[in-house]
Design brief:
about 325 residues, alpha/beta, Rossmann fold, 8 helices, globular
């Protein structure tokens, strides 16, 4: 009863508040619904995407191209070794939101190496998408090699059935139930109408700074999510090695390691520590009022650091331009 009264009062507050003006995106996110993977990038895109901030300022205007499998296109040199690859999994920073194809991290990395670089990144996603792609997709890959996932502190917020990341509520997710990670098609199916109501409520009242949305339904159970993250990474690593004879490499920034406390539980897996970016030299791109993303210059420096760290682990030997 107390729970219902609490959110009834929030609903009343919501009804009397004015509408919140949001950013306007045209062609920023283009996807289609698959049966098992969830949303995935539309194939064969060749479109212009632009985003206008809530204050009317143009955030970006870029061209997005994807291949026949929904992967962001990467231009390769004629002499690239197509029998060996490096796969990038990740979210909008790896996909390159707000960037042209030539400016993305996978493309910048491809410019430095003589193996095939493939991007399986999608905005707003993370470990769940990587696992589902490996379980239910990627049959088109006939080469072998390693994969990289740049793990950030916010990725843990995209796990669990009560994710505050509202755009994932119609996406597949996993629950740790004993010895297994059990797959569910979406949160609405798992929680029913209650989920629908709470998602809509959260998406509005989260914009109200004096309300604490870390309570009850929206609470982040960090211990539970860390356990899911560890199990998921180990499962991804196992499947990836079986399918592509390579390692699923978890890369992370040195300065963010203290905020990813479960790194110590990934024993036996391949970890790669990246240098802290020099924000005095190159800054991230501000996407309106809510987010920052990598720039072309930032991706170039990150690609150089990533290549250097991979070579230090005896990877990419004799495979660079």
């Amino acid at each position: 009863m107390r729970f219902l009264l609490k959110y009834y009062s929030l609903a009343v507050v919501m009804c009397v508040l004015p509408a919140v003006t949001a950013d306007v995106c045209t062609n920023c996110y283009n996807y289609y619904q698959t049966e098992k993977v969830g949303r995935w990038n539309k194939p064969n895109l060749n479109i212009e995407a632009h985003r206008v901030c809530s204050d009317g300022e143009l955030c970006y205007r870029v061209k997005i191209e994807t291949d026949e499998y929904g992967r962001r296109k990467i231009i390769t040199q004629k002499d690239v070794d197509t029998q060996n690859h490096l796969v990038f999994f990740g979210c909008s920073n790896i996909f390159g939101e707000g960037l042209n194809n030539s400016e993305t991290l996978p493309q910048q990395f491809q410019n430095l190496v003589n193996i095939s670089v493939i991007s399986y990144a999608m905005p707003g996603t993370g470990l769940v998408k990587a696992l589902n792609l490996l379980k239910y997709n990627m049959e088109e890959i006939t080469s072998q090699g390693d994969a990289v996932f740049i793990l950030r502190p916010y990725h843990i917020n995209r796990l669990g059935y009560n994710s505050e990341t509202h755009w994932l509520h119609d996406e597949p997710f996993y629950i740790d139930e004993g010895e297994a990670l059990n797959y569910y098609r979406n949160r609405s199916e798992y929680l029913g109408l209650f989920d629908r109501f709470m998602v809509k409520l959260y998406s509005y009242v989260n914009k109200i700074t004096f309300l604490n949305m870390n309570l009850n339904y929206f609470a982040i159970n960090k211990e539970r999510r860390q356990k899911i993250a560890v199990k998921m990474i180990k499962k991804i690593s196992q499947i990836y090695k079986q399918r592509f004879s390579g390692d699923f490499i978890i890369a992370y920034y040195r300065h963010e390691a203290k905020n990813i406390t479960y790194l110590s539980k990934l024993e036996g897996l391949t970890l790669l520590e990246l240098d802290k970016p020099d924000f005095k030299k190159i800054k991230q791109k501000k996407l309106c009022s809510c987010d920052t993303h990598f720039t072309k210059e930032y991706n170039y420096l990150l690609a150089i650091d990533l290549k250097r760290k991979l070579k230090s682990q005896n990877r990419l030997v004799n495979l660079d331009h």
